[in-house]
Write a structure and sequence with these properties.
Elements lengths: L7 E3 L4 E3 H13 L2 H8 L3 H15 L4 E4 L2 E4 L1 H20 L3 E4 L1 H14 L4 E4 L2 H9 L5 E4 L12 E8 L1 E4 L4 E5 L4 H10 L5 E6 L2 H5 L5 E4 H6 L15 E7 L4 H14 L2
Parallel strand pairs: 5-6, 5-7, 10-11
Antiparallel strand pairs: 1-2, 3-4, 7-13, 8-13, 9-12
Length: about 270
Amino acid sequence: MRLEPVLQLKAEQGTVTARQLEVLRAVDEAGSINAAASLLSVRAPVIFRHVRAAEEAVGARLLGRAGRGSELTPAGRELLKEGESLSRRLEAKRGMMVACSPVSEELLMACIPKVDDSIGLVVSDDERNVRSLLEGRADLVILDDPLHLLDLEEHRAVEIGHMDMVHVDRGPRYVRYRFGAQRIAFRHLDLAGAEYEVEGELLSVNELLDSGRSFFIDEVLLLRRGVSMQSSTDPRLLRHAVMAVHDSDDPRVEALLRELRGKMGG
């Protein structure tokens, strides 16, 4: 079991969370509630709720009006400064972190011990892993869906190999698996002019197999379970690149990339 410190500030009347500090930072940078909401890809009421919760915790106003926008009050700036100071102290204690999806989890678990078994591994979907990299909570991200590279143009990206997907066709009613290059798979259906309906999204491979619906899944996830299924589409047409993205000069990153490419034949 790996435990990581989480940033929280104990205040007079409650606790200020890392997310609330992130919201205050966004308002400070963007200059208004609406601009901060756009920056964080949320709605303005979400920003208001986080600000109000932080204000209730510290017992003070944290935002004030500034022309047509908003700015931090002296109490807000003091809180944000304290949060950033604590964040830097936690960051100094944090080891190297790698983020991936369940598709590449087993691959990384085989490669990490050969480089440094203290490297942490976080498993989530590509979207959240991209956010972790952008927010500095991950040093290296392994992406199943290369379309996410559009959000990471300022980071270094290298292809470490390819994976094939299996198309299980049980008719026009589909379920989408949360992980893998699903956008690429469904784009194939669109380009083929297929008529279909996506009825939901599933997180479990077993639920996917038992759904009675059509779906796409990376072949490696089936092989890992000893399941063999005939693909209704040539897997080579659904092949996708697996990308490693980072912005780190840590030599362990390059060492891990060499191990990953060796495993994938890339």
